[in-house]
UniProtKB/TrEMBL annotation:
It comes from the Bacteria. Gene3D superfamilies: Gp5 N-terminal domain. Residues 16-84 form the Gp5/Type VI secretion system Vgr protein OB-fold domain. This is Gp5/Type VI secretion system Vgr protein OB-fold domain-containing protein. Pfam families: Phage_base_V.
Length: 215
């Protein structure tokens, strides 16, 4: 209800407000705000890019955020957007030409689009997971957490793990001109079958030579 003590004409201007609550009791995506003048408190809808039954864009302002409020009528208010003010810091450093678009959550998770010459998309979580997609130097996709990483570049795939890499499948097929394995020991269970075996030495508890072996 309008408690400003003014007519609707006074409400037709934009107003600054502070978010008091974002848990709408009617589950309509509204936030409760207090106007900077008059101490008026009300529930206001939040303007968004899409809003439909069980779909849409939901980025509700947090409690204590400063928002801009507009009135459709004395009883209906809409949050037009939020703004940084006072000691609140912008999540992105200012640059002369800002080609970076960023969404960052209070916990530190971040989605960043870089539209500069080396176009890049960067996703980070608060726990340290990182996904980077860049078009520089032929393109690269990097997924990492600490020292573990998977990197897809123009003509190469790299997998780094500090402990173990596991592959499980009903069948694994590898096609390559050459497969090189560097290990202190390679262990196979079951039967190992090959067309040609070239070895400097064979150590086995039992060995059955086939045709062509020299005793």
């Amino acid at each position: 209800m309008n408690t400003l003590g003014h007519g609707f004409g006074a409400l037709q201007a934009l107003h600054l407000a502070t978010v008091l609550d974002n848990q709408d009791p009617d589950n309509r995506g509204r936030v409760k705000v207090r106007l900077a003048i008059g101490d008026m408190e009300l529930w206001a809808a939040v303007l968004t890019n899409s809003a439909g039954p069980d779909y849409g864009v939901s980025l509700l302002p947090k409690i204590d955020e400063k928002v801009v409020l507009a009135f459709i009528s004395p009883e209906v208010a809409v949050v037009m957007g939020a703004l940084w003010s006072g000691g609140d810091s912008h999540p992105q450093e200012a640059r002369e030409v800002d080609d970076v678009y960023c969404i960052r959550t209070p916990s530190g998770s971040q989605l960043k689009f870089d539209d500069s010459e080396d176009s890049k998309i960067d996703i980070k979580t608060s726990s340290g997971y990182h996904l980077e997609i860049t078009e520089a130097e032929g393109g690269k996709v990097l997924i990492e957490k600490g020292s573990e990483s998977i990197e897809f570049s123009n003509a190469e795939i790299k997998i780094n793990a500090s402990s173990k890499v596991s592959i499980e499948a009903a069948q694994v097929k590898v096609s390559a001109g050459m497969v090189e394995v560097e290990a202190g020991m390679s262990k196979f269970s079951g039967v190992v079958k090959c067309d040609t075996l070239i070895s400097n030495a064979v150590v086995s508890s039992s060995y059955t030579p086939g045709a062509g072996n020299i005793w």
